[in-house]
Amino acid sequence: MPISDRQAAITQFLARAGWGQADYRPLAGDASYRRYARLSSGRGRAILMDAPPGGDGRKSAAAQQYNATAHLATDCAPFVAVAAYLAQSGFSAPRILAADMAAGLLLLEDFGDRLYFDLFAQGEAEVPLYMAATDLLLALHNQPVPDMLPESPYTAAYRIPGFDQDAVQAELALMLDWYLPDQGRETSAAARAEFEDIWAGLYPHFATGREVLILRDYHAQNIFRLPERTGLQQVGVIDFQDALRGSAAYDLVSLLEDARRDVAPEIAEAMLARYCEIAPRDQPEFDAEGFRFAYAIAGVQRNTRLLGTFTRLARRDGKMFYLSLIPRVCGYLTRALAHPRLRPLQDWMAAHMPRGSA
């Protein structure tokens, strides 16, 4: 759709929703194809999510195939369904104020300006905020994750995809296909096959334990402090449209190995220890050693994927900022690879990655 037509659709949507006269201020974009704006009027404030149907799969057949295999949302339905589920479960997810599902337009509750990332930059104490975010995960993981989310006013019943082995391997392939070539390294067919075989052996350990709802991008730029609320509702979450069913370790890694800011190793270890100490109270079957291994695997998997994702965002989409995050991601990758049971992966990385990457 041409830009002028898209803007006309947005104007009509806002007029129908009663926000046609609101002040409109675009917000900084993220790694996705979605765009956001803050609306202000006598009615208060709201957030516009502009998510054209099809997502970045419109760019190429390869992008479309990747999105399908990695279970990435290409319309608004997953966001709306997961938001309703989180709210019904007692968590703070943005309320849907208005929706045009066919056009890919949502009007959302505005959580304000107390984003974790900004609070940290302003000198707010990190440990209490990370404790609250970790405790939210513990509470979320204590709830049985449904196969299907019920109908909402805007969506039919929605099946949450599983973080299956195909999705894991597709994400890992981004490093082979984008990061390594950008570093002047090509991966031979034999090296790729060896890499895939190592991960096939690791996947059962990654998928072990209780299956939970993975929000998938749970980090300081997607978490708000809402002090006017009580309990865990003081933690507001956004950007969960790609949610999956899978390993409880994944979102904890996303939180504590944050590509956009440094998380001190001692804070990360304290939160991991907190999770392992509290989880058995409601999960008698919880295995701390197995969870720590899954956490290390998730750390390698997520940071490996980010090397490829950030390179692709820069080289394919012109979002050069993401290259500046790669050194931090490499540091997290090195930290995760230190787990003694990941020696085969350490050896593969040493042989095929540029020096300093892992």
Explain what this protein looks like in three dimensions.
The chain contains 12 helices and 11 strands. The protein is an alpha+beta fold. The protein has one domain (3-352): Aminoglycoside phosphotransferase (APH), C-terminal lobe (Aminoglycoside 3'-phosphotransferase, Chain: A, domain 2, Alpha-Beta Complex), CATH 3.90.1200.10. A 5-stranded antiparallel sheet has the order 1-2-3-5-4, covered by helices on one side.
Question: Main attributes?
Answer:
358 residues, alpha+beta, Aminoglycoside 3'-phosphotransferase, Chain: A, domain 2, five-stranded antiparallel β-sheet, two-stranded antiparallel ribbon, 12 helices, 46% helix, globular
Number of domains: 1
What Rg, in angstroms, do the CA atoms define? 20 Å
- Tell me how many strands there are: 11
Name of the CATH homologous superfamily? Aminoglycoside phosphotransferase (APH), C-terminal lobe
Largest sheet: 5 strands, antiparallel
CATH architecture type? Alpha-Beta Complex
Report the principal-axis shape.
globular
Query: What is the CATH domain class?
Result: Alpha Beta
CATH topology (fold) name: Aminoglycoside 3'-phosphotransferase, Chain: A, domain 2
Distance between the termini: 42 Å
**What is the succession of H and E elements?**
HEEEHHEEHHEEHHEEEEHHHHH
Low-confidence stretches: none
Give the integer mean of the pLDDT values.
94
Number of helical elements: 12
Helix content: 40-55%
Q: Structural class per helix/strand content?
A: alpha+beta
With strands numbered from the N-terminus, the spatial order across the biggest sheet is 1-2-3-5-4
> What portion of residues belong to β-strands?
5-15%
